[in-house]
Amino acid sequence: MPFIKQTAPTHVVTPRAQQSTAPQALVAVDPQNISDTSITSGQVQFAINITNSLPINSFVIRVSFNVNVTTISKSGLSFQGGVLGNTPNISLECINGVSVISSTIDLGISMLGGTTPNPTNGLLFKLTLDIAGKPGLSQIHFLSADLENGSGTPLNIQSSDGYFTNRLCSPNVYCKPPVAVFTVTPAVPLQNVPAIFDGSTSHTPNQNQTAGQKIVQWRWNWGEKDLEDSEFPLGIANQTYNYAGNYTVTLSVVDTDGMIGSYSAPLLINRIIVDIGILDLSANPSHEIQPGTIVTITASPANIGTSAANITLRLFVDRKEVENRVPRRSTN
C-alpha cells in the first residue's frame, strides 16, 4: 500500500473576485498542509472542500502544483462522497503539459439533476499526488474556482491554498510557500495601454529563519495565449493587453531556498471607448451684427470616453475655415 498521510486541517484564506453580494463560500485545500520529512515516496492526498455555500449544481476549478516535488497519480482525482454525487457529469478533466515548475488540472463537474442543499458543505473532489522523490515544497494553488447554480452567474467565493513539504528551511522548521502579492496600475486597465504590475512586496515567511532569505525570482503568467510567460527583475512588470476581456494573472515567486509560492487574481481589461464632441458653441455678439464687427466664437470640447484624448477644433464659416483661432485651454 502507498504511504498516505494527512494532518489536521487549518485554513489560510485568500480573497478572490466578488461576483455578487451573497455570502461568501469557501473553497479550500484540506488539510492546509502536510509537512513531514519522512515522506520521500508514496502518495499524499488532499480534499478540495466547500463550506458555507449557496446551492450549486456545477463547478469549474483550476489548480496547479510543483511537478518537481509531486506528480498527479493515475487515479489522482476522486469524486466519491462529493456534494455533487458519486457519479457526477464530468464536463472538463484536463491535465496540461508541464511547465518548468508546475502542472495544472482543469476540472469541470456538474450534477445530473437538481442542486445541493442550502448551505452546502462537504467534498468537491479528492486529489492524490505521487511524491517525486526530490525534497522540496509543492503548493496546491487555486488558479481559479467558479461555482454555479444554473443561473449562469458564478457565486461569491473565497479560496484557500494548501501545500506539501518534506524539507526543512532551517533547523526543526518546515519550509513554507513564499507569499506572492501584486497590484495593478492603473486601477482600470485598458486595452492597448501599458499597465504596471508590481509584485515587489512579495515576501517569504522563512526570512526570519534563514539568514539572507528573500525573493529572488518573479514569474508572471498573463492568462492570455498571445502573451508569453515572463520574468522581470525586482517584481515590477509592464504589460499590454491587445484585447478587452477577463483574464487571470498569476505571479509565482521563488525564494533563496528555491521554495515557490503563487498568487492568482482576475483582471478585467476594459475596451477603449472614444466619445468626444462639442459641449458648447456660442457667438458674441450673436444678433444685430453690423458689417466689420468682430465676432468672438467660442467652442468647448467634451470627452466622455474611457481615456484621455487631445482634441483639436476646426471652425468653419460658410464652408471656409477660420484661421485666426486662439486656443484658451486644453481639455483631457
Notes on the protein architecture:
With 332 residues, the protein is an all-beta fold. The protein has three domains: 1-166, Immunoglobulin-like (Sandwich), CATH 2.60.40.680; 176-272, Immunoglobulin-like; 276-321, no CATH class. The protein is built from no helices and 25 strands. A six-stranded mixed beta sheet has the order 1-11-2-4-9-6, with no helix packed on it. The chain has a six-stranded mixed beta sheet with strand order 3-12-10-5-8-7, with no helix packed on it. A four-stranded antiparallel beta sheet has the order 18-17-20-21, with no helix packed on it. Strand 17 and strand 18 form a beta hairpin. Residues 1-21 have low confidence and may be disordered.
Mind telling me the CATH class of the largest domain?
Mainly Beta
Overall CATH architecture of the largest domain? Sandwich
Structural class: mainly beta
What is the number of domains? 3
Query: Uncertain regions: pLDDT < 50 for 5+ in a row?
Result: 1-21
> Averaging pLDDT over every residue, what do you get?
84
Largest sheet: 6 strands, mixed
Whole-angstrom Rg: 28 Å
Binned, the helix content reads under 10%
Q: How many DSSP H or I helices?
A: 0
Give the overall form.
elongated
- DSSP, total strands: 25
What are the secondary-structure elements, in order, as H or E?
A: EEEEEEEEEEEEEEEEEEEEEEEEE
**Proportion of beta-strand residues:** over 45%
CATH topology of the largest domain: Immunoglobulin-like
N/C terminus separation: 70 Å
Strand order of the largest sheet: 1-11-2-4-9-6
